[in-house]
Amino acid sequence: MADQYRVRVTEDETEFVCGTHQDLLAAAVAQQVRSIKRGCRGGGCGMCKVQVLDGAYDLGKSSVAILPPAEREQGYVLACKTIPKSDLKIRVTTES
Ligand code: FES
């Protein structure tokens, strides 16, 4: 079983690796990937919102006001609360 997954950011073709127990934002910061904006790192500000285009993940506790159910259904996640369960393809977005 993999102990890390590959995460590709579609806009700039950046790729980084993320541990199976690590959130996307922490992994991006550790590898100096700046495509994902960072804020509170606690699921409350929405700065790190991205859309998962492909792959499996677990989304931890996230503010419903910041990430409403309709967005979750479209694959939007908070990177600071998202743990990959496979390789991922993501789109960085500033849309709310
Ligand atoms: S950094 Fe604030 S919600 Fe992720």
Walk me through this protein's architecture.
- The chain is mainly β.
- The chain has one domain: Roll (Ubiquitin-like (UB roll)), CATH 3.10.20.30.
- Helices cover 12% and strands 33% of the residues.
- The chain is built from two helices and seven strands.
- The strands form two sheets. Strands 2-1-7-3-5 form a five-stranded mixed sheet. The chain has a two-stranded antiparallel ribbon with strand order 4-6.
- A hairpin with a 4-residue loop joins strand 1 and strand 2 (14-19).
- The chain is globular.
- FE2/S2 (inorganic) cluster binds at residues 38-41, 43-48, 78, 80.
Tags for this entry?
96 residues; mainly beta; Ubiquitin-like (UB roll); five-stranded mixed β-sheet; two-stranded antiparallel sheet; 7 strands; 33% strand; binds FE2/S2 (inorganic) cluster
Chain-wise SSE layout:
Elements: E1 4-9, E2 14-19, H1 24-30, E3 49-54, E4 57-59, H2 69-73, E5 76-78, E6 82-84, E7 88-92
Parallel strand pairs: 1-7
Antiparallel strand pairs: 1-2, 3-5, 3-7, 4-6
The structure holds FE2/S2 (inorganic) cluster.
Outline of the structure:
By secondary structure, the chain is mainly beta. Helices cover 12% and strands 33% of the residues. The protein has one domain (4-92): Ubiquitin-like (UB roll) (Roll), CATH 3.10.20.30.
